[in-house]
Amino acid sequence: MRASAMVLALVLAACGRPDESGEPVADAAAAGASLPEAGATLALSAVGADGCAARWNGEAVTRAQLLDRAGAAIERAIAAAGGVQNISAETIPVVRVEAPAGMGFACVDAMLAAVRRAGFPRVILAPAGENEAELAAFPLTEVGAPPPTIVVRIAAARMTWNEEAVDLARLTERARAIGGLDVAPAAPGELEIRPAREASFGSVHAAIRAVRLGNVQPTLRPPSVAPRP
User: Fold this and answer.
1) What are the tens digits of pLDDT across the range 91-110?
2) Comparing C-alpha atoms, which of 34, 30, 58 is closest to residue 44?
3) Is residue 107 within a helix (H) or strand (E), and if so which, with residue range?
4) Which residue from 179, 181, 182, 153 is spatially nearest to 165, judged by alpha carbons?
5) Best exposed site among 53, 81, 150, 152 by fewest CB in 10 Å?
6) Confidence of residue 187 (pLDDT cuts 50, 70, 90)
């Protein structure tokens, strides 16, 4: 990781979790309407030898090139802000990640790893070609944050809430029980979504949307990030 990105990660950890507005999230689409403007777009497609290709702002990139491009974007943001000390969770750029709904999360995870290593603390998820709301998610849990109270695991054909099988409707119902509708949302980081490599991008997006309908802002932990003990 570039030194500036490492410093940035520590600064953001000290500042608190991003998107901690305290405002209720009554609907995922409404939440998507207030998303920050994307500083870059990462478009994924199931092409190439390994069925996993990426374009950064329209230009084809390898994983190594993606890390360089993302790192350069972070450094430009730091320079534009006048130094890492002036960067906050609200001013750091956000990457818009587009992928086919049926794409396996293994490809998404591999590309998110480069974005994460560069120092981006959050992304916008957008199923390509689908009439679905764009959603903000958080690839990283902040340094030193406590383990989540609730873990939602997503496999190829099964989803669980703390090991109990749930569907999307039940997921929203469970989230609403802790998030409510007329009060401030549950604390970010209380619920963590952990997709398996074989889960689809669309199923992860749908789970995030279902949780947000329950007035809870989940954290997204990709398969390549080891869970906290």
Assistant:
1) 777 899 999 999 999 999 99
2) 58
3) helix 105-118
4) 153
5) 81
6) low
User: Identity (one letter) of the amino acid at 24?
Assistant: P
Contact assessment for residue 114 and residue 70, using Cβ atoms and an 8 Å cutoff: yes
d(CA 108, CA 197): 9
The region that residue 102 occupies, defined by phi over 0 for left and psi between -120 and 50 for alpha, beta otherwise, is alpha
CA torsion angle 32 15 185 201 (round to 10): 40
Element (H, E) at 207: helix 201-213
Judge whether residue 148 has pLDDT over 90: no
Contact 192, 221 (CB under 8 A): yes
Rg (CA), the chain: 17
Region 175-190: mean pLDDT is 68
pLDDT of 36: 67
Question: Rounded to an integer, what distance in angstroms lies between the CA atom of residue 221 and that of residue 153?
Answer: 10
CB-facing half-sphere around the CA of 142: CA atoms within 13 A: 16
Q: What is the pLDDT of residues 14-41, one digit of tens each?
A: 444 444 443 434 443 434 445 667 789 9
